[in-house]
Design goal:
Number of domains: 1
Structural class: alpha/beta
Strand order of the largest sheet: 3-2-1-4-5-6-7
Strand content: 5-15%
CATH topology: Rossmann fold
Number of helices: 10
Bound molecules: NADP nicotinamide-adenine-dinucleotide phosphate
Order of helices and strands: EHEHEHEHEHEHHHEHH
Oligomer: single chain
Distance between the termini: 33 Å
């Protein structure tokens, strides 16, 4: 990753933050984004050497109308972007029947439309530069649905449809797209997950508490990106749910119905 110019959203926390530290260690030049400017500066300050190579660019993915402008700003910082990593995201902890359209749309805006908009802003420059890489942090629930995650799961499924299609359209331009599907990673995701009224859950789920550490997840993501993998599943035993669904769909349906959380 030495001297690669990499833009990471969701860089203030969790998987995105862990990616910042590892990529910085490997000599990448970084643009780091999320809403919380102070948290982004904290992350930048945690990077020991050459933090001049880390540029903070705050943005709110819910404000989809300003994202093309943010993409143009990001491009000006180092003159090009080699790798765009979409790690920002919010989750959900509410039944579909109780989740109003406003909350469902918020999940779609942040998790799906935000990623689409930033990608569209960068694609022409990547194509004219002769190629680039796009990394999309989806989820295992981008491969199957489960309780309390209807709109979250929908937003992650949408990422697969969009970026699988985009991969086919842009392969000839040397654009490589890696979709990452984490299982349980120990981050603030469930703490910030939206309840039916749009407020944050403010508690950590047990599964996340006992999940993989974000630095291990980030290291596996970087390996997948370096080898230009199309799709990768990262986590503990829960990642086998994808295979069980594919090969034993009837058994999977029973299993997921009984699961407390996935
Ligand atoms: N942790 C897991 O177990 C797990 C499992 C599957 C998938 N994932 C996915 O992994 C990705 C990273 O999540 P995480 O686990 O690292 O959770 P996290 O610690 O809560 O980090 C989420 C990041 O998204 C940013 N963000 C949230 N809303 C935003 C908005 N409106 N605009 C811009 N940035 C926003 C947050 O920063 P600000 O608050 O500063 O905006 C934060 O940096 C997400 O896409 C998530 O869906 C995580």
């Amino acid at each position: 990753m030495k001297d690669k110019i990499i833009w990471i959203t969701g860089a203030s926390s969790g998987i995105g933050e862990a990616l910042v530290y590892l990529l910085h260690e490997q000599g990448a030049k970084l643009i780091i984004s999320s809403r919380n400017r102070d948290a982004l500066y904290r992350v930048k300050q945690n990077c020991k050497n050459n933090s001049i190579d880390i540029h903070v660019l705050p943005l709110d993915l819910e404000q989809t109308e300003i994202l093309p402008e943010k993409a143009a700003l990001a491009l000006k910082i180092f003159g090009r972007i080699d790798i765009l990593i979409h790690s920002a995201g919010i989750s959900q902890r509410a039944l579909a029947i109780n989740t109003g359209l406003k909350v469902a749309q918020q999940l779609m805006d942040v998790n799906f439309w935000g990623a689409v908009s930033l990608t569209q802003g960068l694609l022409p420059s990547m194509i004219s530069a002769g190629g680039g890489q796009i990394v999309v942090v989806s989820s295992l629930v981008g491969k199957f649905g489960t309780r309390l995650r209807s709109a979250y799961s929908a937003s992650k499924h949408a990422l697969h449809g969009y970026f699988d299609s985009l991969r086919i359209e842009t392969e000839e331009h040397n654009i490589h797209i890696t979709i990452v599907c984490p299982g349980f990673i120990k981050t603030n995701l469930t703490f910030n997950a939206l309840l039916a009224d749009g407020s944050a859950q403010n508690t950590m789920d047990d599964a996340q508490e006992n999940g993989m550490m974000p630095d291990e997840c980030a290291s596996k993501i970087i390996k997948a990106v370096a080898s230009k993998k199309r799709e990768v599943y990262i986590g503990g035993r829960e990642k086998y749910a994808v295979l069980i669904k594919r090969f034993f769909p009837g058994y999977f349906a029973k299993m997921i119905r009984k699961a407390k959380v996935v």
